[in-house]
Amino acid sequence: MLLAYFQLAISMAFVGINISIGKEIVSHIPVFLFSELRFLIALLILLPLLSMRGEWKSSWSKEEGVVLFWQSFFGVFLFSICMLYGVKWTTATSAGIITSTVPACIALLSFWILKEKLLRNSLWAIVLSVCGIGLITFSGESQALSRISMLGNLLVFLAVISEALFTIFAKRLSGKITPFQMTAAINGISFVLFLPFAIAEGMSFSWGSVMRSRVYLHRHEYER
């Protein structure tokens, strides 16, 4: 049990790192294009690993396919869109605090969808999460900035719900497929979901702007 808690804590730490890095990258690369590149890199790593581990799976049951699709749609497609657009309009700190409510959302959705028992500690976590989000959203900022931040915070919270749904769907396949198989399948489906939008953005994106940004950053660091 302690190992499971540790693994969950590490995964949430990676989510936090992803938010900080994603906020910086989407200021230079469009959201859909950036997401597509992520999945391409992930697949180039995961597919050989699957083969090396002897976990290659060529056929999937209907239930597995349906659950994996909704996992990808909510937990990756919607999550990435809401999170990456959200962090453009709010601070990484606010986004990180809001995403820390994922466990509370999972507990609530597990109670609602999976009919799991909702413990008193979980109820307190949900209440505190709501209070924390409210405090962040309605903090004293200028009206124009506050509206933008509220939109960003709302998108990040929608990403949290999507992430919670991802976990709920993952429980449905627990023990039926391996984590590597699930990860590879989700990245493959997400790659397809993002592909048409990424192509549209890629056709109008100036790759030279990325190089110019890198040159500016290096020059700025050198001057400092």
Automatic annotation (TrEMBL):
Segments passing through the bilayer: 32-53, 65-87, 93-114, 121-138, 150-170, 182-200
Membrane topology: Multi-pass membrane protein
GO CC annotations, alphabetized: plasma membrane
Stretches assigned to the EamA domain: 4-137
Superkingdom, natural source: Bacteria
Keyword Cell division attached: no
Localization (cell): Cell membrane
Keyword Transmembrane recorded: yes
Keywords associated with the record: Cell membrane, Membrane, Transmembrane, Transmembrane helix
Family under the similarity heading: Belongs to the EamA transporter family.
Protein name: EamA-like transporter family protein
